[in-house]
Amino acid sequence: MFSLTIDQLKFDEKGLITAVVQDHLTREVLMVAWMNAESLRLTQQVGETIFWSRSRQELWHKGATSGNTQKVVQILVDCDADTLVLLVEAAGPACHTGERSCFYRQVE
Amino acid sequence: MFSLTIDQLKFDEKGLITAVVQDHLTREVLMVAWMNAESLRLTQQVGETIFWSRSRQELWHKGATSGNTQKVVQILVDCDADTLVLLVEAAGPACHTGERSCFYRQVE
Questions:
Q1: Is residue B26 included in any domain, yes or no?
Q2: Segments in chain B below pLDDT 50
Q3: Which residue among A20, A26, A79 sits closest to B29, beta carbon to beta carbon?
Q4: What is the CATH number of the domain that holds A23?
Q5: Could you tell me if residue A64 is inside a domain?
Q6: Domain total for chain A?
Q7: Which residues in chain B touch residue A106, judged by CB atoms under 8 angstroms apart?
């Protein structure tokens, strides 16, 4: 599979890129968050998802306090190079509500 | 499954919401695009994905010219109500490159 480097990604005007997190086996979408270049580099170094929290304006190592970390298996990027899909092995629920996925409701 | 109405969704300051499009059978993430309230209402009415093109600043009925429409099976929403996952049955490739999914490359 063709590979891009972080420098080839298109971060938005705030320096962020959308990160879709998907279970690597079930392919269930677990959550969608944001990364900046630093959080993506740290994700690659640590091997677990580290996002940029827009509300708290700080790095957010998913599961650092809850234990519900996400081990990164593969990072995919789209044709525009402005969105990521992270295939992960989740140690626990992705959602703060305790649901396995944040997408536990539907639009009627 | 608990349902939300469009009025309960949180659109951003530009009136947009992130829309992750996933194959309803393989669960492959096909593309990520944007919707506003109007495009979401039209998506529900027509039963096919209709996005808001940020580059062209207009409604974008996916596949209207190429034939590669996406029939909507279910629309999920996350805990924050600010991101959608659309489970679809795709008539053809999602990507303008001809790839089935826009996520055909990885980050090294």
A1: yes
A2: none
A3: A20
A4: 3.10.20.810
A5: yes
A6: 1
A7: 1-4, 74-77
pLDDT of residue A66: 93
What would the pLDDT profile of A39-76 be if each residue is shown by its tens digit? 999 999 999 999 999 999 999 999 999 999 999 999 99
B74-107: burial string, b at 16+ Cβ within 10 Å, e else: ebbbbbeeebbbbbbebeebbbeeeebbbbbbbb
| DSSP-derived pairing of the beta strands A83-90 and A17-23 | parallel
Q: Which tokens is B39 given?
A: 């495009």
**Residue B79 and residue A49 in contact, taking contact as beta carbons nearer than 8 Å:** no
Could you say which of B74, B97, B102 has the minimum Cβ distance to residue A106? B74
Q: Is the ipTM value over 0.85, yes or no?
A: yes
What one-character DSSP code corresponds to residue A7? G
Whole-model pTM: value is: 0.97
Instruction: Indicate the SS3 state at residue A41.
Output: helix
